[in-house]
Design brief:
Elements lengths: L7 H9 L5 H7 L8 H17 L1 H4 L9 H6 L3 H9 L3 E6 L6 H6 L3 E7 L3 H13 L5 E4 L3 H5 L5 E6 L2 E2 L13 E2 L6 H7 E8 L5 H7 L3 E9 L2 E10 L7 E7 L5 E6 H6 L3 E2 L5 E5 L1 H6 L4 H6 L2 E2 L7 E3 L7 E11 L2 H7 L3 E7 L5 H8 L2 E12 L5 E8 L1
Parallel strand pairs: 1-2, 1-4, 2-3, 4-7, 8-10, 12-14, 17-18
Antiparallel strand pairs: 5-6, 7-9, 8-9, 10-11, 13-15, 13-16, 14-15, 16-19, 18-19
Length: about 400
Amino acid sequence: MNSSILNTEIQNFINNNLHSNISEIVLKGTAFDAVTTKELIEQIEAKVKCEKKIPTWFNTLHIYYPNKLNIEQTSSETTAAYKASLMGGKTILDLTGGFGVDCYYFSKRFDSVTHCEIDKNLSEIVAYNYKQLQISNIKIVNDDGLEYLKTDETFDWIYIDPSRRHDSKGKVFFLNDCLPNIPMHLNLLFKQSKNIMIKTSPLLDLSIGIGELQHVKTIHVVAVNNEVKELLWILERGFQDEVSIKTVNLKQEQDDYFEFQLKNEKSVESTYGKPLTYLYEPNAAILKAGAFNTISDQLTVFKLHKHSHLYTSELLIPFPGRCFRVENIIPYNKKELKQLAITKANITIRNFPETVEQIRKKLNIKDGGEVYLFFTTDVENNKIVIICNKL
């Protein structure tokens, strides 16, 4: 941590160049003896990434930023606030502290927070930034979190955000491929706390995660503006009952929630039917959670086809996803579509053999406008187009 970066003149330069061309700054080089060009660029790039992701840091004076990779890997304030709302108590240990956004929100729910970070430089940065943020109940520990756990201190909660170490394996994601290897150290974790929260990438398959872990009580599938950002695994020592799945889509307006038990998804059946007055598209969190039958059963809506994941009803209901009013339904036929003279529309495919790009090219339909077209397969295996207006 180069404290010269915090000098007023250098801070002014950083703030004045947040939207400048980085290549031009590289060519000109640094005008400050105490700070390299690389350090200046790191501060600028990292701060820019914070503007929307962690605005509290962005809007606080004299914050010191690590490299932009640390910012990319950190939780957003939106998801950090959500996960903090799921916990509470006197003490919590963040085993993999990172840039400390999660701990900042934990500090509002716990009397004492311990932030473990093995990277010395990052640990120093976090300690300094908490002073600027006027947070005083977070203890900073520059150590491996698992080693720190062996001191026999117990906690009401332990939080872990493991990092992947086998990117070459592609989309196959196992917890025992991560650092720390949580399945290997579960006994130690449960010895020091009854409650554990694990954050993972949405790449982790729910059934694989349940198989690798023990005492999984709840899995939260967290989306922000319909993009799944993380899975939160709540483990409770000794828990043996059915796993609950809670989905949330965090939005600027009202958030969408849907909850179900994994066993019910396997035991209930969807009710199928042709498109009625209203069409529903589940949000991304529900699709990730695989609540395809439960949502039909709980909300009493018809599903269009086993593999289409679109739902319908005659009366409008509150639905966790996008809602549309159906204006017309036609067979997928180029001639009939041409007769509608639609030149601009929002196109979605569900269980359909062609891509959006292929459809746009074939029908010469541009993106956007007020019309929504769903190309899908109905309960009788017919290819259809549902023409809608969004509610």
